[in-house]
Amino acid sequence: MPDFAIESRLGNNATVFGFDEAGRGPWCGPVVAACACWQNQDIPVSLKQQIDDSKKLSGLKRERLFEEIKRSSCIYGIGYASAEEIDSLNILQATFLAMKRAMENACQTFHIKPTHALIDGNRLPKDWPVPCQCVIKGDHLSLSVATASILAKVTRDRIMCELAQIYPHYGWDRNAGYGTKEHIQALAQHGITPYHRRSYAPIKALIEQMVAKNTD
To answer: What is the tally of structural domains in the chain?
Structure first.
């Protein structure tokens, strides 16, 4: 289970933001990032015992924890990068852009600035205003990062459910935009949408097929 060991090593007076994202792999929709900070490690014991990597939790438990986190003393922010930004920047840089937006959201909402950032993964953004540290499998290790993982995952799932109401054929409320059989079949029958990531190989290949067909 994640704990505050990494945060504690940064000092008693540190304001540590943990960052995680949801939606790097799907073929459509935004990438969503969140940051979370438990100032002075002030977290209810019952909540501390439940927070974990979002992928280990059921959808219902993630939803419940999401609401509990928002009602708690947690400092948090959420940011997005669109499919168009992903295509323009690449998914890594778009993820860092979403993280920066999440940090800005938290700072504006809670009137606080981080002294350190823990970034889930093995790559760091450039030119950030605070010191950053990679934490591989951070959502397994750090309570700040694990909290962010829940916030990001639930937010993105909700976005994809909303988009599924506009484009019901693709099953985004069930597959979150990943390349499932249902999604692939819908692409073949209905084509791409404005929310598909055109730089991703399967979508790019489909566009090329459509162009070739129209030029024959």
So the answer is: 1
Residue 49 lies in a domain: yes
CA 198 – CA 216 distance, rounded (Å):
22
With contact defined as beta carbons under 8 Å apart, do 136 and 151 qualify?
no
Closest C-alpha among 34, 13, 29 to residue 177 = 29
Q: Which residues, in sequence order, are CB contacts of 115 under 8 Å at separation 6+?
A: 10, 13, 14, 15, 16, 130, 131
- pLDDT for position 72: 96
* Per-run averaged pLDDT (10 residues), the chain, 216 residues: 96 95 98 97 95 95 97 97 98 98 97 97 92 96 98 98 98 97 95 97 90 67
Beta pairing, strands 16-22 & 116-120? parallel
Which CATH number do you get for residue 124? 3.30.420.10
Identify the pLDDT of residue 42.
94
Write out the H or E segment, with its range, that includes residue 122. Answer: none
Please name which of 161, 125, 160, 164 lies closest in space to residue 35, comparing C-alpha atoms.
Answer: 125
Encoding tokens for residue 211? 């162009």
CA distance 27 to 179: 6
